[in-house]
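Blinded run. Sample ID left blank on purpose so nobody reads anything into the name before looking at the predicted structure. Input follows.
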Amino acid sequence: MFCFTKKTRFFDRVHHALVLVLIAACGLAAAQEGVLSQLYAARPPAGSSYVRVVNPEAPALAVRVAKGSVQSIGGQTPAGSYAIVHGGQDFSVQVGDTEITGLQVRPDSFHTLVLRRSGKRYAVTPVDDTTDTEDALKAELRFYNLARACPEAALALSPSGTLVFRSVAANGSAARSVNPVRAAVAAQCGQVSTPAQQLPALQPGDHLSLFLLGTAQAPVLVMQTNRTDVFKR
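Blinded prediction complete.
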């Protein structure tokens, strides 16, 4: 009886070990499949560029870049995803019933178009988001000064006050790579600061946009993780 129990326990352990090996093998196969699917996924043609629109005003607007999807942007979601366009060729941006035509960006670039109302029409101001060097082991923060009548803006760690970005001009941006750590930040326009906010959990390779909106007297900081449209043949 004792021998039978001992053998049973032995075979149970062997069976358990085999199950773990099979699970690990399946997990490895799934991971490899995921890597291969990314490696062989359809990619945009050479010279393609990426363009998104930011609506710094509160009322949300329905916006479409080139042949991308219609997106509602504004308020706490000021930016749309980066749409894929042909670099060096004209494209348009649809804002509600209004179309902005004759837009163009250089090939192999990333751009944000800041949307502003001009009378009964809309106009865009381009901001070049292209990064010459990128560290895949770090995350990227990009800070935009889109607050009205704010000639220079800054972003600082809170509560230490250590500056992350300084003297960012109106309708301009600045970027830097950081280690994915937990931290709180606050934006400043002159002597007026926004309430401190915790950065979201970031992973290596993530890109986070920090938009200073509102006005110089009442600035508002909004954070949004960057998204890029999937290329379809």
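Unblinding after everyone has recorded impressions. The CA atoms of residues 142 and 175 lie 4 Å apart.
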